[in-house]
Amino acid sequence: MSTNQKISALLSHLAAGIDLLGKGSFRASGHRRAARLLNGLELDVADIVNNHPEDAQQRLEQIEGIGKGTAKRIVEYVTTGSLAEHQKMLEQVPASVIELLEIPGLGPAAVRTLWREMQIESIDDLKRQLDTDADALASLPRLGKASVEKIRRAVDFRTKTSGRIQLGRALPFGEQLREELREVPGVLQVELAGSLRRGRDAIGDVDLLACCADPEALRSRFRELPGIADLLSDGDSKLSARFDAPGGGGVQVDLRIVPRESWGAALMYFTGSQDHNIAMRGRASRRGMLLNEYGLFERRVAEQQGEDEGSGGKAEAGDLVVGDSETAIFEALDLEPIPPELREEAHGLEPVPDDLVTLEDIDAELHSHTTESDGRLELEELARHAIELGLHTLAITDHSQSSALAGGLEPDRLRRHIDAIRELDERIPELQLLAGSEVDILPDGSLDYEDELLVQLDVVVASPHAALDQPPDVATERLLAAIRHPLVHIVGHPTGRIVGRRRGLEPDMTKLVQAAAECDTVLEINANPRRLDLRDSHARAALSAGCKLAINTDAHSTRHFTLLRYGVLTARRAGLTRKDCINTWSPQQLRTWLEEKRR
DNA sequence: GCCGTTTTCGGCCCGACTGTTTTCAGTCG
C-alpha cells in the first residue's frame, strides 16, 4: 500500500469510529471525503512531506479538498508512522466493532445498540448471538424480528462472498439481466448504472435502471429472474435482491424504475460516482439550477411562512430545464458530455479529449501465447483468428525459460520459434506477425534471456511473474532495470496484481513512469479482468508523466481476445487517447517505433 | 472534516424503502 492509501484507510477507519461514538456525522463524512480524495490522488503526499519539511502543511492545504485538519494528519502520519487520534479512537472502539458496519443493514445506530446493550463486539459475537438467542436481539430498541432475520441473511451472505466482484464476472452477469428485462412487454429502456457502467475493476453490486410503460410487469419479471436468492426490498420504484452469481458466491442487484422524462437525470444520478454527482450538483447550483435524479430544474427559493420569514428560504425545484437525456443535462450546464468511465473525482468536470481510445481503435495485439508455451492455439490458428478479428498486427510472445510451469522456451526452442513465426509471416501478407517473447523480469531485475537472443526478436515484452511480494524498494529497482533495458519495448502487467486476490508488487510508481517516459518504454494495461494491470490510477499517472501505453489481452485462447473491452474501459478511466495507445497505430508506425526504440 | 459571488459560521445530496413505530429513525446509494 502506498502512503496515500494507508492514510486513506486510517481516515476511513477513523470516520467509522467517530460515527460509532456519535461524535458528529459531518466530521465523519469529512474524513471519508478526505480518504476518498487521497486514494485517488496521483501525487504522493509522503514526497511532499519528505521533500518540503519546512512548509509541507501549507503545500498540502493547496490541494483541493484537503484542509488544515487533514494536512496536519498527513504530516503526522508521514513523520511518525501513526495517527494519535486514530489510536485514541481505537482505545474507545474495538476494531472488531467497526467491522460490524460491513454487514449490510447495520449502520452506526444499530451497531452502537448491539455493542452497548448486548456487548456484541465482533461479527463472531453476532453470529453466536443469532444462533443462541436471536429473540434477545429482536427485543432491542428499533430492532425486531424482521430486522434480525435480515441481519442473519446478511451475515450468511457475507460468509459466502468476499466483498467485491471482478468486473469480468460482474459485467456479463449484469448484461444478461439487462437483456432479460429488455424482453418485458412495454419496456422502453434498461441500462446498467453504477460502478459497473463506469468500468471499475471490481464492483460491489449490480445497478440496473429501467423505464417501462407497465412497471408492474417489470417488477414481477425481476422477482422471477433466474438465480434470485433473496428479495431484499420491493417498492414501486426500487427493487433489490441477492442473486447467486455464476461461478459461486452471490451478488446484490438493485433495479430502479424511473419515469421516462427523468431517464437521463436518473441514469446520471445512479451512474455516479458520488464525487461526480456532488460536482455536478454544485455546478448546477452555481448556475441557479437544481440537479437531482428527476432532472435539472430552475431553482426557486421557497417562500417561508410565518416567523421564519427573512431567514432565507430553502431552495426547491422550479420549472424542469431538461431530464430525459444525459447529454442534454451536460449541455445545459455548459459541459461536453463526460463518458461514464471518467466520472470520477480524479477527472473532475474537465473537458474530455476527443480521441479517447475506444474498442474499435485497437488494431494490434502485442502480447499473445501459442501452444509453444501455455497457449491453447497453434501459431497459425492464432494468426488466422487475429485476421478474423480484423487485426493488422499480432505479436507472438510466448513465455521465457524461467516460467517452467508455463512451458517457457529455452534459447534453442525460441530460435526455432522465431523462424516459424517469420516463415508464417511470409505466407500471410494480410497480417503483420511479430516475433516476440514475454521475458521474465527475474527478481533481481535482470532478464531471462541474453541480449544476444533478445536482439533477434521484433518485440520484447518484459513481465514480472515470480517474487511478487518483494518490498517496495526492491520491486522499484527491479522494474526500473527492465524499463531502462535498451532491448525491452513493453513492460507487461507491471505489478502482477490479481484484482481482489493478490496485491502484487508495490513499486514507486512516480519513479517508474518517469523512467518509462524518458526511455520511451511502453507500459502495458493487461486487459484480462483478473489483472487490469496497470490499474486505472497507475495508467493515469503514467499518462501525466508522458508515457505511452499498450492495451494487450495476453491471449492464451480465442476467448481471451474478447477481454479487450476490460482493458479499454480501464484505459478510458485513465484518459488514454488514441495517439498514446500504441495498439491503435498503423503497421508501419509500429514497426518504425519498434526499430527506433533500440537505437 | 471541508468550504465560501448567498456564509469565516453554518451549512453539508437527498429521496426511497423498511421496519418499528403511531409519526419517524435508520440505512442505502
- The CATH architecture of the largest domain can be named as Alpha-Beta Barrel
Low-confidence stretches: 303-314
Order of strands across the main sheet: 11-12-13-14-15-16-17
Look at the structure and give the mean pLDDT. Answer: 91
Portion in strands? 15-25%
CATH superfamily of the largest domain: Metal-dependent hydrolases
Largest sheet: 7 strands, parallel
Number of domains: 5
Return the CATH class of the largest domain.
Answer: Alpha Beta
The level of helicity is 40-55%
Structural class: alpha/beta
Shape: globular
- Stated plainly, the CATH topology of the largest domain is called TIM Barrel
Distance between the termini: 37 Å
Please, how many helices? 24
> How many individual β-strands?
17
> What is the CA-atom radius of gyration, in angstroms?
27 Å
What does this structure look like?
Mean pLDDT is 91; it is low at 303-314. Helix 17 (379-388) links the parallel strand 11 (364-365) and strand 12 (393-399). This protein is an alpha/beta fold. Helix 1 packs parallel to helix 6 (84-92) and helix 3 crosses helix 5. The protein is 44% helix and 16% strand. The strands form four sheets. It has a seven-stranded parallel sheet. Strands 2-4-7-6-5 form a five-stranded mixed sheet, sandwiched between helices. The chain has a three-stranded antiparallel sheet with strand order 8-9-10. It folds into five domains: 3-93, Orthogonal Bundle (DNA polymerase, domain 1); 98-160, DNA polymerase, domain 1 (Orthogonal Bundle); 165-257, Beta Polymerase, domain 2, CATH 3.30.460; 270-342, Beta Polymerase, domain 3; 359-596, Metal-dependent hydrolases (TIM Barrel, Alpha-Beta Barrel). It is built from 24 helices and 17 strands. The structure holds one DNA strand of 29 nucleotides.
